[in-house]
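Contributing new complexes? Match this layout with threonylcarbamoyladenylate.
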Amino acid sequence: MKTELIQIKEEDLQTTKGQRKLDAAAALLQKGEVVAFPTETVYGLGADGMHAESSKKIYEAKGRPSDNPLILHIAEFEQLSGIACDISDNAWKIMKAFWPGPMTIILKKKPEVPKETTGGLDTVAIRMPNHPVARELILKANLPIAAPSANRSGRPSPTLARHVMEDMNGRIPMILDGGKVGIGIESTIIDMTGENPVILRPGYITPEMIDQVVAGVSIDPAILGGPMAANLKPKAPGMKYRHYAPSGDMTLVEGEPEKVISKINALASEKREEGYRVGIIGTDENILAYQADVIISMGSRKDPENIAANLYGTLREMDERGVQFIFSESVGEEKFYGAIRNRILKAAGYQVLKV
Ligand code: TXA
Ligand code: MG
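Output block (do not edit by hand):
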């Protein structure tokens, strides 16, 4: 299969040419084909979420286990009535507060949503993205679009169309290239099948922000990581997989900055002496202090948005540059940093050294 890469910027949406590009993408979706598209979080791998055959094509292209459910993407509140039921007042409050935006809600599913889309569950994950290309595409296709992140299973999520091409070339007919995504890590998932919000995956929308809308927020204990969580089964099935991972063996080093820098340099020099190619992931504040084969800064510690936007690209670059061992700084847990830390921990397979 030949994969077409179509450039489409936000301003193209006002032109006939831009609209024709989207028409072509929407027509593919209506025929049951898979199209990758940009969202504000990461690129998605979309198909008609209401037909089992289309959802199956997503799992095939991604190489994903079929018990790992997909998120249905909608553009308007009217689309909800066809896919979810028993929606509580608190669930409505959450949706009204955070949509369109980087928030996925878990609700009870309508029978019309195929089990192939929800991985056999009787609940369904739903998100209304605010990226203009995603919104227009969903409106044109006039379907709930099932879309996981557009990476091959186990790879870091794509934040550029080039990343999607690396993983999906020859496997899907079309990729819409809307440039670099804004946020760079996946949406916050909130389970609203009970009265109170339960966070199943941390993201840009933090527990503090949710608490302002509906009090009594809790976090699924299985996603907090560390040895304690090893035998807990996460409520979001996807959170159990080793995700976001580069090919190189990655270790996080945490502690006081000076100690972190000297430990990372010591580990890097040890591995280089053994003949390995070594990469270091740091932050602007410390980056000049490192020695290794590949050294990349995720951005400034004062700017978590920037770190999130660069994280997956940095992990992919370590792969591209053939790095075998990666030593990385970590980040804290306050507010949005918690979501970033969750992704870094997973990339490192929870290998953490405290100094
Ligand atoms: O930001 C995002 O959410 C991106 C963009 C493309 O929208 N999508 C994304 O999809 O990250 P994916 O498939 O990579 O992650 C979806 C997560 C998985 O961990 C999955 O297990 C969980 O959502 N999930 C889906 N349906 C669920 C359900 N009914 N109950 C609990 N977890 C569910
Ligand atoms: Mg994913």
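Reviewers usually confirm one structural detail per submission. For this one: The first strand starts at residue 4 and ends at 7.
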